[in-house]
């Protein structure tokens, strides 16, 4: 039995896969609800997990534009899968959540209560692109003058356990967005999964005192230079195996200059305006509200739910919707993600996770659309 | 008190049953409105006019074409319930066939049956204030609409695709993860995306969403292995007389998923 390790020096530590059970126990003892990857209905989804047994051991995925399949792996790796249909947005900014409820008492007074008390979440299996996406949401929903109370409440007190990618998917392009696959900052713990003849283990480093505290409770051993090098190489190899690349052009400039491009007709002929891309995107933050009352009107609730710029209602102003064509709506989505987001928030709205490519039922790939837009611009200029 | 009337035309009663199915809320509804005409629930009938009429079923006989005008005259707000009333229902399959042949095959004494050659939605005959879609309707939408009418607030009746609700519900897309055909991208939301939650493709029972893309959806359906006949049938089931679905049922080719820029999916000729 290995002794618990002193990580005060912030040295990377090796833990065996069996230590994940203790990790779950430790998190629970500290009052965290653990959310992590698990298999459901033919995909790796994020869900509240009770035990490490629910992790997707031995499950790999194959992705392509508009296609996602699970596959059996030769090993028992638990984090060797690229992005599924959900992201940490599903936890931090739920698809549907109550903003407030109000009750009118018989004497006419009103009692109003806020959002439901959130739990303290430990997010397990956060990728580098996901860390970047949480950073984007922090900026948008908690970093300005108007804080989203639901997001802020759920984000508060998170513990983030990142797992670096060693198995990027065919739809991944975080390397070209500068967000991954190695995890730089924004985590409490960062792990790299290693599976080979020497066993199934994780190289773990702490990013915060909270992370160090958790790590200290796990049976580990100091990682030697060989393991550290092996982990570094695995992540570097992943960077070289990204299935997609975002063209290295001035994206905001390209999009702003080509608002009348004939290419929008081309993409609109393929786009279903179904909204899936915005729903799966880990940074799309748009919501709308829905009011619910009982029949008497004495009890009212306001619910917040995900909205999408692919909905006609989204751009409804007095008298009608502003963006009615598929052209206008696809252009809004990609222009916001890659262009105007910079003006608004000083960063890109895309972190290169590839979810919108894989989970688009029409298989529309924004990296290809950028390519085609640039090509069309080159022809006309 | 607000008076409510429920009317039946050519239909299966399933939508009216959705109202009776609001078990928990039914007493509250009965306490807030006077149910003046609802033969499925009671034989007692109050004379009109009525504040709100809920109309189930399509128009398939000359008598019903008359009767719906009368209902409209007696109603302040008229709401159609379900695929039959809003889009002709499954019985609108006759619109694509020979009614005399149907009649002679189905009935022992066809001469007893007086019917129109078509099944048409209520809106083809009279003005409609609100339409609830689905086969059957979603009872939460029905309750929300009744509540909205009582309190004078805006009902929540989205026009976007089922995919929005499917993702909000956290379901795994059956098209992307299983290669199963699904009408969700062209179908109006409102059901809560029930079918994909049980790993079935959407059957389109809520009728068309606000801006369906016929060719892209054809490309998707064909790529999942559907034959042309199956595509036609998929659209001509619950909402057979819906003009948009009729249009979609005539488009057989489109870009396959992942075709990429310039990919039209049309055969080279
Ligand atoms: S790009 Fe794809 S996912 Fe997004 S709205 Fe169009 S078809 Fe749907
Ligand atoms: S735009 Fe697409 S690739 Fe970029 S972050 Fe959103 S889902 Fe991921
Ligand atoms: S791309 Fe559309 S849904 Fe996403 S954040 Fe921008 S406006 Fe909102
Ligand atoms: S399963 Fe159907 S409804 Fe759900 S996202 Fe996929 S295409 Fe849309």
TrEMBL record, chain A:
Q: Does the keyword Kinase apply?
A: no
Fetch the Pfam families from UniProt.
Answer: Fer4_22 (PF17179)
Keyword annotations of the record: Iron, Iron-sulfur, Metal-binding
User: Record's InterPro entries?
Assistant: 4Fe4S_Fe-S-bd, 4Fe4S_Fe_S_CS
- Every copy of the 4Fe-4S ferredoxin-type domain together lies at 260-292, 341-369
Q: Which SUPFAM superfamilies match?
A: alpha-helical ferredoxin (SSF46548)
Q: Tell me if Transcription regulation is a UniProt keyword of this record.
A: no
Q: State the protein's name.
A: 4Fe-4S dicluster domain-containing protein
According to its UniProt entry, this protein's organism is Paractinoplanes ovalisporus
């Amino acid at each position: 039995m290995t002794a618990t390790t002193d990580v005060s020096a912030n040295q990377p530590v090796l833990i065996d896969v069996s230590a994940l059970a203790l990790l779950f126990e430790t998190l629970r003892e500290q009052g965290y609800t653990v959310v992590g990857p698990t298999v459901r209905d033919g995909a790796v989804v994020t869900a509240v997990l009770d035990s490490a047994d629910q992790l997707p051991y031995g499950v790999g995925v194959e992705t392509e534009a508009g296609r996602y399949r699970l596959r059996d792996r030769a090993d028992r790796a638990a984090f060797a899968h690229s992005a599924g249909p959900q992201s940490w947005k599903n936890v931090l900014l739920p698809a549907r959540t109550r903003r407030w409820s109000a009750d009118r008492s018989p004497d006419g007074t009103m009692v109003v209560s806020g959002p439901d008390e959130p739990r303290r979440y430990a997010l397990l299996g956060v990728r580098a692109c996901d860390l970047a996406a949480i950073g984007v949401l922090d900026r948008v929903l908690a970093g300005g003058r108007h804080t989203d109370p639901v997001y802020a409440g759920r984000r508060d007190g998170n513990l983030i356990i990142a797992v670096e990618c060693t198995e990027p998917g065919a739809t991944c392009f975080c390397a070209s967005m500068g967000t991954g696959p190695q995890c730089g900052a924004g985590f409490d713990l960062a792990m790299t999964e290693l599976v080979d003849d020497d066993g199934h283990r994780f190289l773990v480093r702490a990013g915060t005192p909270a992370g160090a505290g958790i790590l200290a409770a796990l049976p580990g051993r100091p990682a030697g230079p060989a393991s550290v090098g092996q982990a570094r190489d695995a992540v570097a190899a992943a960077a070289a195996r990204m299935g997609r690349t975002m063209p290295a052009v001035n994206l905001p400039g390209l999009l702003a200059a080509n608002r009348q491009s004939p290419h929008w007709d081309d993409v609109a002929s393929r786009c279903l305006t179904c909204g899936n891309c915005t729903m799966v995107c880990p940074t799309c933050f748009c919501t709308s509200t829905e009011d619910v009352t009982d029949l008497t009107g004495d009890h009212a609730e306001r619910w917040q739910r995900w909205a999408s710029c692919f909905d006609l209602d989204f751009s409804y102003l007095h008298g009608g919707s502003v963006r009615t064509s598929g052209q206008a709506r696809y252009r809004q989505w990609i222009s916001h993600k890659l262009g105007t987001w910079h003006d608004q928030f000083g960063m890109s709205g895309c972190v290169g996770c590839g979810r919108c490519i894989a989970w688009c039922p029409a298989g529309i790939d924004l990296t290809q659309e950028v390519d085609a837009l640039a090509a069309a611009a080159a022809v006309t200029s | 008190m607000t008076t409510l009337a429920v009317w039946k035309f050519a239909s299966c009663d399933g939508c009216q049953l959705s109202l009776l199915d609001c078990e928990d809320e039914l007493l509250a509804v009965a306490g807030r409105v006077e149910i003046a005409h609802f033969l499925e629930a009671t034989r007692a009938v109050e004379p009109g006019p009525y504040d709100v009429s809920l109309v189930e079923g399509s128009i398939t006989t000359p008598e019903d074409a008359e009767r719906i005008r009368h209902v409209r005259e007696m109603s302040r707000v008229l709401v159609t319930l379900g695929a039959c009333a809003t889009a002709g229902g499954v019985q609108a399959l006759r619109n694509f066939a020979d009614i005399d042949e149907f009649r002679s095959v189905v009935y022992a004494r066809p001469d007893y049956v007086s019917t129109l050659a078509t099944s048409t939605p209520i809106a083809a005959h009279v003005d409609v204030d609100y339409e609830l879609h689905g086969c059957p309707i979603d009872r939460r939408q029905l309750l929300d609409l009744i509540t909205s009418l009582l309190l004078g607030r805006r009902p929540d009746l989205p026009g976007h695709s089922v995919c929005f609700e499917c993702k909000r519900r956290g379901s795994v897309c059956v098209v992307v993860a299983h290669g199963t055909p699904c009408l969700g991208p062209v179908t109006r939301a409102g059901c809560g995306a029930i079918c994909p939650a049980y790993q079935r493709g959407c059957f389109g029972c809520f009728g068309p969403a606000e801006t369906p893309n016929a060719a892209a959806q054809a490309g998707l359906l064909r790529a999942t292995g559907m034959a042309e006949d199956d595509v036609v049938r998929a659209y001509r089931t619950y909402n057979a007389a819906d003009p948009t679905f009729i249009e979609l049922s005539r488009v057989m080719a489109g870009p396959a998923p992942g075709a990429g820029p310039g990919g039209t999916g049309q055969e080279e000729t």
